[in-house]
Amino acid sequence: MTIPTSTYRLQFRNGMTFDRAAGLVPYLQRLGISHLYASPIFSATSGSTHGYDVTDANEFDPVLGGRDGFLRMSDALREHSLGLILDIVPNHMAASLENPWWRDVVEHGQESRYARFFDIDWSRRLTLPFLGDTFEEVLARGELLVKADPRTGKPAIAYYESFYPLTPSSYEGREREVLEATRPDQIAALHDRQPWRLMSWRDAPRELSYRRFFEITGLVGLRVEDPHVFDAAHRTVLDLVREGRVDGLRIDHVDGLADPKGYLDRLRAAVGPDTYIVIEKILGEGEQIPQDWPVSGTTGYEFITALGNVFVDGSTHEALTAAYRSVAGDVATPEDELRDAKLSMANNNFEGEVATLLKLALRLHEAEDVTAIPSEAMHEALRELLVAFPVYRTYGTTDGMPAEGKALLDRIVGDVRGGSHAPDDQALTFLHRLLAGTAGDDSDEARLFRTRFQQLTGPLMAKSLEDTLFFRNHRLLALNEVGSEADPHPASLARFHQEMKARLQHQPDALSGTSTHDTKRGEDARARLYAISEAPDHWAESVNRWREMNRAAIKALPGGPAPEPATEWMLYQALAGVWPTDLAPDDADRLKALEERFLQYVEKALREAKQRTTWGDPDEAYEGAVRAYASHLLSPENRSFLEDFRATLEPFVRAGLVNGITQTLIKLVAPGVPDIYQGSERLDLSLVDPDNRRAPDFHTLTTGLAEGRLPTEEEDWRSGRLKQQIIRRVLHLRRNHSLLFRTGGYLPLAPEGKRAEHLVSFARQTGDKSLILVAPRLVLGAFRQGDRPLSDRWQETLLPLPSSVGGRAYRDVFTGRRFDPAENLPIAWAFVDHPFALLLSA
Q1: Which comes out higher in pLDDT, residue 567 or 783?
Q2: What crossing angle do the helices spanning 334-344 and 375-388 adopt, rounded to 10°?
Q3: What distance in Å separates the CA atoms of residue 385 and residue 383, rounded to the nearest whole number?
Q4: What pTM was estimated for this model as a whole?
């Protein structure tokens, strides 16, 4: 198997086509990339900005250039010796009439040859939850009409631009009569003869008849556990692998599959042993990928979490919490907030999924035991189990639950039973047996229960933690990232080293990402915000000063002030993360451009928090007041605030730039395959999607990649040129010493002396080759105390070198300077040219 030495993630669509990507290939080669890592490229719904709403898994999207465009891109990659990794979506497809499989199911119902392709409950009519109101109200307003479908000419029920095909038996032989139906009762009668029924989107959480992706009704679950469906959905992908045009696959949301291991085993058998496979999988604290999964690792969310241990000052953990509460007030603990979010999700957003599980459980118990369990008792036990799950899911199959899954399940059940919300013990015991595969004869329905339960715990966790709690708990936004815990332990450099050792042991070939299309903010925004942990009291004082300066912009509403103090804390912190390094307070045009991006983020943050407004039921008065406050912050007329904010932010900006370089070096040198998200080779100060999916300035990126000496002037740090050049230099080093980076041991190094706690250091070594990284951390204090060069601060600080890496000659990767340390490396000596060192044994 060819393992990438590095990947470069491109987001197709939004202007990125196959031909444009082909034009970037020479740049990627110069940067040192070994594999282009492409977002989904197959046909998706019209106007899709991401491609995960697939309509045809075997057609290259014409918007991107179709098959011919793909082949031109593939040829360009081959010409420059770059590989290709495709992001594929086996878990779901678009529930759209643009999807020919779905359209056929809508038209023919259970008689469709694709009826078993999707997770549909055929005990009732297929629900189509795409009306703006109830069917009765929409019909009464005359919004439903019978028309000929302009694409097929066949009769259809039209709802604005959507034409829902009628099943042939409802009109064959009387097309004219059907097309002339205009009265509401005629349309209703015709609607009742269809294998589907139209309904309001608001009723989807309760009444949906198909499994959806998370809570997105426009994405329907695909049954790739069926070999026939697997073959149909992977035909083109497998052809590309066999033709040698695709070298690796990234599997989207593997936890959403009925049987992840079964799917991966089938995929591995189809692509052979030489295809690189990574999975999108969020690991909980201490969790590892099952050892028998035939993959190289994850896409790297846990790597971001580990980095927090380097850049967050763990000694201020309690002080930062106190500072936050001094502004936000008596906020709930993260654990209580997460429980509240999970309960809300189970009771509302996933009400239908929970109801389906409840019906199954009651039916299975009734068949097994004469002693009935009341529905409410079973419901409570089911809900408590769902809420208590600390990880995305277990991996029980038709063969039962694997040992590690049983152990986890036993622990969770024990916690629920002994907790303050313990449900009926008989119900809990029965559900435990169902999930463990020990209930009765473990019937098909019992196995279905186990599968559906496991497919629900992941979305429940994701929507509750990542898309609710992380928009409520604003203590330190840098830690509110995909893969993080609700209430992480105080940061610890020792924990980081422990995580890297585990990474080398369990998934040395996994991707190591720091920005993705799904991260809550860009890697350099996060690097800057980490620095708040170094001065929590100073930050709180600043926030209170800014709140006073902008107090007149707060609006009193019946539900409380808008924004409330906790939201103000969030707004200032989010603005601090996204503020461009060179933005002047008097630059009205750039302030306006930033405002447009920031307001989009503000709306999403408020709605995801689900406290005073939601996507389904937006509070326009509240949202308008908070948006107005955010606009006021960035108004050129608010000059005194902008100047104060910019001046206060400057030390955090500079500390963030240092953190960003250290973060980049760690990603390039630590175990794993570094993934460069498009544009993040320079500064990535983006906010949550869609902001993080904006097209980068590829002209600047491609023309600014220079050879020669490493640029280290102030402007090079601020523009990201230094970061880009570091990436280029180390990626080429990785290509030349791939064995060292892939299999080399990981050796934590412990600096000593005056500034020891401000350094992170480790070595990679294999055979007679060693590589030592030394880089700064926790440097905010240096910038707050003055403009003294960082290199002057490292006197009296040494790096002791163990015998395995000491006593040999080294050369600095960036300058070529020779070092001959015996037992100790003086940091001031190593940092003469730049405040970091990457030393390769000569």
Answers
A1: 567
A2: 130
A3: 5
A4: 0.96
